[in-house]
């Protein structure tokens, strides 16, 4: 018996590795001699570096950069494949968790720090960069990132713009002549799990601006600023970034990464599964367990359980989803190769209680579910013999 365990984190509660370990303990109670393969997952947000480094050999690199408001901080990124591939989370330098509630201001916050991480990786000679863009505090279209890599963003007087999304309203010229030359030698893939365009009612400012501190007036201003930015970068990049699916991800960094860096946008879970060589492990499994903090209608749109199930479906391996909570009918995910979904909760419980007992409840949930799974399999074998 071989079981692959490939869960996402339970956001705000357990990281992906802790989730995988708790699931493993539950499996061992039912199948003590089972071969278990752990593949902690992520979708490009916080925890991506940790998840990948727990799945493949690599190292952490510390680098001095700046936070969303330009203050000095230390950030960490990963190097794998003998140092040829960098795993970078924009949240490490430009993330929302780096700011207090009062400090959130997408008019001013910048991706400059993320650009400094990329610059460090380029100086170390990497040939590939995997960039996770979840959890951003910014709405600058990646302008700050580009500035850190040598791009000059100028107003009509030829003066460099100040950091932040609001300044893009005054953008009159993009000078790419001094962009870091190493970028042309490096393949960049961006983990992007949304399809939002750069601007408009479903764009970066309108949809994600409020959680970054934007009020209704800010949203209107920032949307116009991104439109100006998008039009000018599109003319340089030779692609209509205003219509690019995913261009509005991470405050427009989806569009900026394509326009400035020539990056490719891909589902985050797909990237992590590929790096972890997950398909080779899944195709020889008898069962796959996955999960996330909350399984709901959004799960079908590129979340980790669906990404894992897609690989398993190719090899007819059954998949069970065990999540912190499940909202909606599990049948909605059956077309993706998921047998069914379970919640770890054993009954009514407050959110605070659920967090405190999360590992214990998850372990018990896996134990209960696999006890029934084992009984069902044994009954089928017995019926087939008769």
UniProtKB/TrEMBL annotation:
<dbReference type="GO" id="GO:0008887">
    <property type="term" value="F:glycerate kinase activity"/>
</dbReference>
<dbReference type="InterPro" id="IPR018193">
    <property type="entry name" value="Glyc_kinase_flavodox-like_fold"/>
</dbReference>
<protein>
    <submittedName>
        <fullName>Glycerate kinase</fullName>
    </submittedName>
</protein>
<dbReference type="InterPro" id="IPR018197">
    <property type="entry name" value="Glycerate_kinase_RE-like"/>
</dbReference>
<keyword id="KW-0418">Kinase</keyword>
<keyword id="KW-0808">Transferase</keyword>
<dbReference type="GO" id="GO:0031388">
    <property type="term" value="P:organic acid phosphorylation"/>
</dbReference>
<comment type="similarity">
    <text>Belongs to the glycerate kinase type-1 family.</text>
</comment>
<dbReference type="InterPro" id="IPR004381">
    <property type="entry name" value="Glycerate_kinase"/>
</dbReference>
<dbReference type="InterPro" id="IPR036129">
    <property type="entry name" value="Glycerate_kinase_sf"/>
</dbReference>
<dbReference type="Pfam" id="PF02595">
    <property type="entry name" value="Gly_kinase"/>
</dbReference>
């Amino acid at each position: 018996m071989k079981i692959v365990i490939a869960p996402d984190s339970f956001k705000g509660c357990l990281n992906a590795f802790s989730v995988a370990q708790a699931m493993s303990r539950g499996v061992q109670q039912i199948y003590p001699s089972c071969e278990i393969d752990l593949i902690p997952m992520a979708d490009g947000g916080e925890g991506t570096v940790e998840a990948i480094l727990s799945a493949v050999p690599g190292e952490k690199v510390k680098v001095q950069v700046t936070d969303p408001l330009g203050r000095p901080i230390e950030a960490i990124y990963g190097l794998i494949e003998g140092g040829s591939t960098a795993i970078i989370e924009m949240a490490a330098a430009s993330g929302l968790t780096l700011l207090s509630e009062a400090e959130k201001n997408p008019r001013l916050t910048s991706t400059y720090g993320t650009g400094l991480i990329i610059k460090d990786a380029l100086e170390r000679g990497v040939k590939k960069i995997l960039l996770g863009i979840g959890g951003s505090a910014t709405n600058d279209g990646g302008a700050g990132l580009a500035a850190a890599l040598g791009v000059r963003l100028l107003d009509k007087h030829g003066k460099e713009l100040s950091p932040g999304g609001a300044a893009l309203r005054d953008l009159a010229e993009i000078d790419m002549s001094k962009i870091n030359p190493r970028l042309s030698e490096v393949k960049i893939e961006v983990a992007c799990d949304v399809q939002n365009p750069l601007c408009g009612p479903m764009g970066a400012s309108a949809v994600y601006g409020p959680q970054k501190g934007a009020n209704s007036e800010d949203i209107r201003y920032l949307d116009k600023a991104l439109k100006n930015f998008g039009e000018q970068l599109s003319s340089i990049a030779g692609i209509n970034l205003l219509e690019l699916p995913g261009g509005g991800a991470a405050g427009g960094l989806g569009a900026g990464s394509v326009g400035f860096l020539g990056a490719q946008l891909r589902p985050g879970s797909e990237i992590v599964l590929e790096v972890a060589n997950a398909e080779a492990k899944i195709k020889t499994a008898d069962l796959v367990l996955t999960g996330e903090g909350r399984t709901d209608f959004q799960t079908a749109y590129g979340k980790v359980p669906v990404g894992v199930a897609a690989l398993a479906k190719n090899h007819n391996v059954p998949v069970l989803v065990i999540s912190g909570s499940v909202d909606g009918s599990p049948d909605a995910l059956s077309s993706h190769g998921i047998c069914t979904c379970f919640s770890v909760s054993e009954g009514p419980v407050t959110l605070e209680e659920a967090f405190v007992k999360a590992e214990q409840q998850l372990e018990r949930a896996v134990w209960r579910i696999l006890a029934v799974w084992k009984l069902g399999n044994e009954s089928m074998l017995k019926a087939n013999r008769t």
